[in-house]
Design brief:
Elements lengths: L1 H14 L14 E10 L16 E11 L5 H5 L4 E10 L8 E15 L3 E14 L18 E16 L2 E13 L10 E14 L16 E13 L9 E13 L4 E12 L2 H7 L11 E13 L2 E12 L8 E10 L4 E10 L2 E12 L1
Antiparallel strand pairs: 1-2, 1-8, 2-3, 3-4, 4-5, 5-6, 6-7, 7-8, 9-10, 9-16, 10-11, 11-12, 12-13, 13-14, 14-15, 15-16
């Protein structure tokens, strides 16, 4: 969706921030925060206009731990914080959406930092429970969310101003997204821009640990091959599950310690395409029409063993014309070893999730 394009730009801004960990003073070891939020449901399609009956309101409780520079990526990302949070959001429509409960894992990346104020960018992902998903009989107008359990991502710019020895006032602008990755239709998803304000309490202290100087970085080329698969549904709601398989190859360039740029190709076999073409009243459908091929531009933000992957792709061959020629992928890769990784990737067509890809791959 277009939101992911905006996120791509934000990730690039974060990865370009300078590392200043060497000059950091002692920092609180733990932080606990409470905040309130106010916003609205962004109707990225007219089908969602009626769901936004009122502004959304919510609250969040969070715990964070300060990194101590004991690992190279701590210094590389300017002494970030990691932690967990719980959010509750009233979606402003008690009959058709109700409330949501969200559990998130967070990584807070400092952009500007001193003793009295700071500016941060926080990346969060987790799970959300929605009170009132689509139901063919009792809630047929909620075409945004088709399941109680959904994936959730949250991104925000935040600032803190110290108001007491162990207390700070925080303010933030962010966006939260819910989707089940087309595991169950309908699944147009919910996007919620919000303004947030709260208080943070700090405790303990941690000083930057001594770390040996890392080896000088050398730009290098790499190749990555991935095999992935995932379930999906198509309209109408309540249909059967289909399997989508994907093989991809990316030729990348490590331009610095944080960033890998690449170009690649995708080959997929989607068993739902046969029935999609039938719905479009096409005849003479063969299994070869389930094949799709495409090329992509790739970026990976490297955070220790984890990389945040963003890809923009275009189909070279696809019999399904209604989804357009462009596709997007975003997700995570975890490096199990120097060469092997596991991946969890969401594929979308603009505002519509296509499927979730669970995969394994190798760098060489």
């Amino acid at each position: 969706m277009q939101f992911r394009i905006y996120l791509f730009v934000l990730v690039l801004a974060v990865q370009s921030s300078a590392s200043k960990a060497d000059s950091l003073p002692t920092r609180p070891a733990h932080r606990v925060s409470a905040s309130a939020q106010y916003g609205f449901i962004l109707a990225h399609t007219r089908k969602l206009d009626y769901l936004s009956r009122a502004h959304i309101t919510g609250m969040e409780l969070a715990w964070e731990k300060q990194t101590d520079r004991s690992k190279a990526w701590h210094a590389l990302y300017n002494f970030p914080r990691w932690g967990f949070s719980y959010m509750r959001i009233d979606l402003g429509n008690p009959q058709q959406t109700g409330n949501s409960h969200i559990a998130l894992a967070n990584l807070q990346l400092p952009l500007i930092k001193n003793n009295f104020a700071n500016l941060n960018f926080r990346l969060s992902s987790g799970l959300a429970y929605i009170d009132h998903p689509f139901d063919r009989i009792e809630n047929h107008k909620n075409v945004a969310i088709g399941s109680h359990i959904n994936g959730a991502v949250d991104f925000r710019f935040s600032s803190e101003i110290k108001i007491a020895k162990s207390m700070s006032f925080s303010a933030a602008l962010g966006i939260t997204h819910f989707s089940n990755a087309a595991y169950k239709t309908p699944n147009l998803g919910l996007n919620m821009p919000t303004a947030r304000a709260g208080l943070t309490w700090a405790a303990g202290s941690v000083s930057p640990a001594k770390l040996n100087d890392p080896a000088p970085f050398k730009k290098a080329n790499e190749r990555a091959f991935t095999l992935a698969a995932g379930p999906k549904e198509i309209s109408p709601a309540g249909g059967k599950k289909y399997a989508a398989y994907n093989a991809s190859f990316t030729y990348g360039r490590k331009v610095n310690q944080k960033s890998i740029w690449g170009l690649g190709a995708d080959f997929s076999y989607d068993t739902s395409i046969h029935d999609q073409l039938l719905q479009d009243s096409l005849t003479d459908i063969t299994k070869s029409m389930n094949i799709r091929t495409g090329v992509h531009l790739s970026h990976e933000l490297v955070i220790s063993k984890l990389t945040v992957l963003t890809q923009m792709g275009a189909y070279l061959y696809s019999e399904v014309k209604s989804q357009g020629p462009v596709y997007h992928k975003m997700g995570m890769r975890y490096n199990v070893s120097e060469k092997l990784f596991a991946s969890l990737i969401l594929k979308t067509h603009y505002a519509n999730a296509d499927n979730l890809e669970l995969g394994v791959g190798k760098r060489f």
